[in-house]
Fold these 2 entries.
Entry 1:
Amino acid sequence: MNANAVTRAVRIPPIVPAASCSDLPVLRERGQREVFCGLTGIIWLHRKMQDAFFLVVGSRTCAHLIQSAAGVMIFAEPRFATAIIDERDLAGLADVHEELDRVVTRLLERRPDIRTLFLVGSCPSEVIKLDLSRAAERLTQEFAPRVRVLNYSGSGIETTFTQGEDACLAALVPTLPAEASGATPTLLVVGTLADVVEDQFARLFAAMGVPVRFFPPRLSRSLPTVGPNTRLLLAQPFLADTARALEERGATRLAAPFPLGAEGTTLWLRAAADAFRVDATTFERAIEGPRARAATSLARQRLMLAGKSIFFFPDSQLEIPLARFLSRELGMRLVEVGTPYLHRQHLADELALLPAGTSLSEGQDVERQLDRCRAAHPDLVVCGLGLANPLEAEGMTTKWAIELVFTPIQGYDQAGDLAALFTRPLDRRQRLVA
Ligand code: SF4
């Protein structure tokens, strides 16, 4: 099959928002959950902001979680660590604030490259009601202007793992400089993107003549300005608090689906192009090459995925955009799309593109959801690590949700790689049973 034939083989349904899908009934569950905590976000945030450091104030469990999730090399100078709250702290025998000051002072002496230090709260620090915002203020006064100290919570109590990024970025928003009065409108892309993806989007926006900044920036001190002339475009669907904080500073959110797959990327870029009055010819010229490459790579993956059924357990909050991509561009059948939280406003454009009758669930009652999954016996299950092994042992094929957050998946040039993340487990299962 040649490239042109492959390109023609892709049949993306026309983009006709089905109003009824935005009003899809949602099964709300509030039972036991199986998700990672917000500390996990440190793994991709520390790679992005190269002059920031994340100091978790937590237990040995917290330290093990991020060490094993990050696979830290012993020779690397890591940009995160854990200040362990031990038994003396928990018993109130030590002044935790004094100990924290000592740890931070030692860290900043050893690491002059650190410009922003995040104190990251955890379940233990919340349980002992350690006021990290007070600590951050005190330490900022001590170490300013060289280092800015901020705080947020990554605790696993009532949060899911991508909320760690939301909390971190929301903590950064008050530090963004105000835009100059009468500033020309600027696009602010919000949400951590791999550098390679950010560079691709920067080139596409430049080809359209759209001035763009990215948040978070690669250097935590190169913060973008914000104000009434800021048009914000979310690159991730889990940034409710960050978007609210930016809107409170005057920014206007552009409604769009998320940039997953060729269709999602086109609609996401078009939302920005429309806001900046880019004419249709310039827009088409800018995207035609990358969009054609995406169509070619998706056609190959579609051969494997079309007609296969998929079940999403709630985990990353990427579930709804992924379900839209897999059903519309790859022909998969959606059995159930679970999400930890459903932000109807931010996901309105995604919900409108889901097939009519899609089963949506929000929150989790894990035993009941497992029963529904077993009854449906889908071809592929997207879930957290804790559920994947037991389900594999029962003969199901699984995909770890967390991989979808660690891998660059946004944009045209990653569309094929994103689809391949779903074909690989199916391919592996086929080989095992062959
Ligand atoms: S923050 Fe809570 S859930 Fe996360 S590793 Fe620490 S103790 Fe566990």
Entry 2:
Amino acid sequence: MASDTPNKVSGGCLCGAIHYDILFKDEGSWPPMVATCQCNMCRKWTGSLVSTNLIVKKAQVSPAWPSFTTLKEYQSSPSSKRAFCSGCGSGIAWFSDDMPDEVVVFVGTLDEEYLMGKVIEETARETEHGKEFERAPAYGRILADSSSAGNLYWQNAVVGITDNLPGPKFLQHFFDKVPLSESVE
Ligand SMILES: [Zn+2]
Ligand SMILES: [Zn+2]
């Protein structure tokens, strides 16, 4: 894992029409806040059992979200919207009226370079299992670590599969609630 603080990480949609940078220049912006969610809406929208979500200030994102021509928004609840690429369907971000200064970016859209590390081509070799290679240091362990903000909709966890995530667990949303791990032994 890379030990330094990155100036930025980048990410985008599958077709490449949306590509963003998230800047970590301001003091206190690194490590970022990370939450997971297992609500029914995140599941339907991402097609994944767990969504891993980076919570950052809108001002940290460059260019600003509305500048992408393929970006469309779906009003998923009265107070929140989900932004996706209309070209390829990738779900990118979630916005809520309750968090007007923040945007929640889906960590799976981050680029390989920052999430897992660039493949070092010179290290590639064929094995009986397939191609093995080493990667350059990256930030995935921090960018996906829900210890910072916690895990939402724990009531929907698939026992034995999605119930082993780091950080506090919340039965539903975390606003004004005590995490499960602090109230139950
Ligand atoms: Zn796209
Ligand atoms: Zn959710």
